[in-house]
Amino acid sequence: MKKAREKSRERPQRRRGLLLTFEGIEGSGKSTQCHSLAGWLRNRGYQVLETREPGGTRLAEKLRDCLLARLGEPVTPWTEALIVLAARSQHVELVIRPALELGAIVLCDRFLDSTLAYQGFGRGIDLKLLTRMSETAAGRVAPDVTFWFDVPVEVGLRRRHHGQLSINRIDAESMQFHERVRRGFRILARRYPRRIRAINADRLPDLISTDVERLVDAYLATRVLRKSHD
Question: Cα–Cα distance between 176 and 153 in angstroms, integer?
Fold first, then answer.
């Protein structure tokens, strides 16, 4: 027994990566910043996985299509929530968890906080119940750092409606709905100030990227992560 304990101490511990999530209302620029940070980290030698929710696997991407399609049929709040949670379960088990176990930095465009903001604050589903179900669907995988890109609703929707992007079912929701979602993100940021970093997204993308890189650089200084060339 003693020898077994000694051998277990000698084994190198499995390195765990980091999960950084990017949150915000429609048109907040979070996807742009996620992609920008992925390039910045790769240039510094880190192993990076860039992914999104809902999505990240073939099945989860099909569920995303169902969620966002404008089919002319009402979608109930719980139908919406369950689609999101099903996609997350598939995504975490097949993509995110394996990458973290290999020591990668995972950048995810939307995660747990979007579920609470959209289906909780936006749709009115009970937050405690939704939180428990979200954590279960994620297999207890939680973000290390979350970047919340805050922008006025009218600015975000203007970007969506006037950009080269198709307007999906969520984009087409009322201003009141999007205001509730933004308020939800604000409440979550106050509730989890150590994890959620609020960023003013009503600025030029390069200025926002500089802020994100500075925050990530400071956070990485406190962690020991292997780089891809190590």
Answer: 9
